[in-house]
Sequence to fold (123 residues):
Amino acid sequence: MKVRASVFASCVLLCEVLAVALFLRGFFPAPVKSSLSSRSSASELPPEPVTGRPLNASAPPPPLFKRVVLMLVDALREDFLFGPNGRMNMPYTRHLVETGSTLSYIAKARAPTVTMPRIKVMT
Fold:
């Protein structure tokens, strides 16, 4: 059975459009719905806690640290740093964690992951 060239080209074009749409859907995941629905109003929100000092929204609070270094290592297993060979693999980072001069956070990722958009957001 012979297929005309125009029919074949149309099928290939349709497959390409579907593939691009599927890729974009996976690369840019759907936004997470907020707990506050569009029907809620500001009057339904709970009141702000009383801290005993006057509220001054124009002055930012003083910084807790002089500087912040965010170290993100993609696909780094936690046992590489915190395991028995952590002193040999990453000695300086392991020393900082053990002395308590840093805070560490271990994120448990599950497939499928979308790394690039999240790195862009943190940057």
